[in-house]
Specification:
The protein has 78 residues and is mostly helical. Helix 3 packs antiparallel against helix 4. The radius of gyration is 14 Å and the shape is globular. Helices cover 56% and strands 0% of the residues.
């Protein structure tokens, strides 16, 4: 879907050429940070699930996961 402002989301950062890794999609999302309100338990559960990806074979996925996990942990401890 396009608008007058152009493409948005992952397709704006990573065109549909070949497959896009989870890390690339996550990195694209980190470019458009915005605030949301979530229960701390949801954030903690997300950290637990994401921690499994910290050993992903894709270096971009590992790095993106580490950044997201660090931000989530910081948000819960703040």
């Amino acid at each position: 879907m396009s608008s007058e402002r152009g493409s948005r989301g992952v397709s704006a950062v990573f065109p549909s050429q070949g497959s896009v890794s989870a890390g690339q999609r996550a990195a694209a999302q980190m470019l458009g940070l915005r605030d949301v309100v979530l229960p701390a338990a949801v954030v903690t559960a997300a950290v637990e699930l994401l921690a499994e990806r910290l050993d992903d074979p894709d270096p971009v996925t590992r790095e993106a996961t580490a950044v997201v996990v660090a931000r989530l942990r910081a948000a819960v401890s703040a």
